[in-house]
Amino acid sequence: MIELTANLHLFRFAVGQAYLWRDGDSLTLIDTGTPGSGETIKKAITGLGFQTAQLSQIVLTHFHGDHTGSAAEIRGWTDAPVVAHYLEAPFIRGGLPAPMPVLTDWERPLFENVGSLDLMLGPPAEVDREVQDGDILDFGGGAQVVAVPGHTDGSIAIHLPEHGVLFTGDTIAEGGGDVILGVFNLDRARAIESFHRIAELDVDIACFGHGEPVLGGAGPRLREAAAGVRP
Questions:
Q1: Residues of the chain whose pLDDT is less than 50?
Q2: Where are the beta strands (DSSP E) in the chain?
């Protein structure tokens, strides 16, 4: 676990990452990592001096298994409700098969290399609250749900205006020092539109599902990157 700010910690896994947000004695987990990551997250929570009961909610940015893989495991040792977009909920619950992304030519070898066929869906997990664009979650001074369809139909970003923090899910990523459009999208054109939408938000810190977060001056970085993204 890596401390980004006093309120924000990063969990990095073999594929993807998750984030822990702190509001006083209350914790919110954004994404859960790949299957089997729950114990790592539990040890980190207790290592910070908290109890697992202080985890107040689990927010899932989309249904892919590198983000939802440990949701069922974590919900097994906490009463924290799981939150996801209403279009993602059927996949997270295991009721629907995962649609395959539409891969560009350069994404195909990357997709095969990371074994993403095994990461399209995590183990089935309950979704306790289904959200949509504009809903407000009770953390970070009022966390705004921002619909960012394209990577998946119900992908969401989470914006904390009071703190200037943005969790982008896989709509935006970082690689080699560059802020880029996330890969393995169901609809690249819609993903680009979503990238442009959240790049306009007033943020100082941007937390991605993959790659190094931007700590300071994130808004201009996102807008510059969005300007260079084309269908």
A1: none
A2: 2-5, 8-12, 17-23, 26-30, 55-59, 82-85, 129-131, 136-137, 143-147, 156-160, 165-167, 172-175, 178-181, 205-207, 214-215
Buried/exposed code over 144-167 (b: 16+ C-beta within 10 A; e: otherwise) = bbbbbbbbbbbbbbbbbeebbbbb
pLDDT in tens, 115-132: 665 678 999 999 999 999
> Which CATH number belongs to the domain containing residue 175 in this structure?
3.60.15.10
pLDDT, residue 111, reads 87
Whole domain around residue 39: which residue ranges?
2-227
Cα separations in angstroms, 32 against 106, 110, 169, 178? 28, 22, 12, 25
| pLDDT confidence of residue 130 | 98
pTM value?
0.96
The distance from CA 83 to its chain's CA centroid, rounded to whole angstroms, is 12
Residues 6+ apart with CB under 8 A from 228: none
Specify the number of domains making up the chain: 1
pLDDT (0 to 100) of residue 127: 98
